[in-house]
Design brief:
heterodimer, A: alpha/beta, Rossmann fold, five-stranded parallel β-sheet, 5 strands, B: mainly alpha, Amino acid/polyamine transporter I, two-stranded antiparallel ribbon, two-stranded antiparallel sheet, globular
Amino acid sequence: MTTTYLVAIDGSEGSLRAANFATERAKASSAKLVLAYVIEWSPYSFNTPEENAERHQRREEEIERAQTTVLDPVSQTFRDKGVGVATEVRHGHAAETLVDLAKEHGAAQIFIGRKGESRMKTLLFGSVAGTLVQMSPIPVTVVP
Amino acid sequence: MKRILLAALMLSLMSASAHAAGFDETINTMTAPIAEWFGKVVFFKIPIGDAALPLVVLWLVVGAIFFTVYMGFINIRGFKHAIELVRGDYANPKDAGEVSHFQALATAVSGTVGIGNIGGVAVAVTVGGPGATFWLIMAGFLGMSTKFVECTLGVKYRNENPDGSVSGGPMYYLRKGFSERGMEGFGKFVGAFYAIGICLGALGIGNMFQSNQAFVQFVNVTGGTQESWFADKGWLFGIVMALVVASVIIGGIKSIARVTEKIVPFMAIFYCVFALIVIFMNYDAIPQAIANIFTGAMTGEGVVGGALGALIIGFQRAVFSNEAGIGSASIAHSAVRTNEPVTEGVVSLLEPFIDTIVICTITALVIGTAAVAEPGFALVGQQGIAMTSAAFAREISWFPIPLAFAAMMFAFSTMISWSYYGLKGWTYLFGESQTMDRIYKAIFCFFVALGCMVQLGPILDISDAFVFLICVPNILGLYFLAPIVKRETESYFARIKSGEIKKYKHT
């Protein structure tokens, strides 16, 4: 059975560094990659009726955008390097959804970049990598 | 285009207000007779003893009882499942990003939790005595079943537009449901009738009544009808309110709507918490207040028409507040993409519960305990929201101010929701086009302003009449389509039981 690595990706530089780092590891151990793009979304927000009616369209657009602008180009460059790559786009709480996806794909490890925010900012807005480290049942590699 | 419409709206209002002094009064004398006549037609009454039972109220009560029994007390047996659905236990993570059950519920609730919960209850208690509260709760309980049926149908028969958005609601299930049963012509007729009704009704219950009561409370906290500089400036308050509403629904300034939608749930909680505090500050009046509710319900002491009079008032105000039987929530719930229409019906059960059984009852107790502790407090000519405000002020003197703010927020969010309901009726009739959209929205804003210029009595008559008028075709359709809902419901719950429909979380 091939090993699977899950890579959290959002198009930022940090996430690309994480993806590159994961690719090196995957090549070395002939593992395959799952690139996961999580769109921050909560089922408990409050919407106007008009927003609800248009929600399905918006969702399709969001997924489409993540797929074509981030996942497709990135996964292509890794495929060219000879690594097996699958992609996932999902809505939800970033860290929670990454853990769910890792479980679904039976991933052995999660790779994630970090933004390197100041302590104040992290205190205010939290950090996906930090939360993920606390929640994940499998090893997490945080790539600076 | 937007600007032109906005400008036109402003101009017409400005020129009207230019006649200045006594303008509010002129509007009043103009509208009062129309309202009175319209109310008489819709509320055709059958005299029973001293009481007069409006046919339409009977129609709603019989419907609610029928659906409760026919659906096997779905309002009780579906309750736990409703909470599980809202909590997201059955939500497939692959569908994350679509409208969740919670969101559909929250949207529908912010449409129903409005001034009716604060001011409408006071009206019920003034006219129907404390006993009206009992019937209000009863109506809420039975209304849960009606809501279940209409919201299930709304999802089942909605239209999916080519662009991926959805339109649903009674006009769609009436048309499609009847034509499925071979009554195409009749289906088209009632569908259109409903659409017209919701267009007009939206201008009353979801609009003028809201802006009027928000204004009343505003005047109240700025010094009362005698002192406040705003007392005879209904047109000014109305124009401001209309402009804010216009900026959201016509101008597309989503941020205002978003802020409101976020504030309203907290306002509702804030309101309930303070109401409970006020009730408990009068703790020695609580047993008597509760006893009054029960004895009032049975004897109807001091109420025109006795117990029956109290019942009629209670039911009337309950429907006005939770909208069960009107079909409006069904429009909001149709936006949820689900393979199981029944799930939306089950979730919608919670709306009359939250709206009527929880919030209205709390308001009734605030007034009830105050009335026990100080019998004459409300006899100073206070009506509607002013009475509720007075009951709060007895214990917490500064509360009318946050109450005014809450009232404005409630009014505003209800108006936003109803502008959508009305618009859906309008587009059903005239097709989905931007120009048509804008025309309706402009009319809607005009009525927001108008609502602040007329007195409560005629407003209640008009809005009640419009709203109750559309209950007639809606409930008629529900009777016809109830067997379909029943079949779907049984199949759905059987699959839950057999484990075919599984929970994703909390297992």
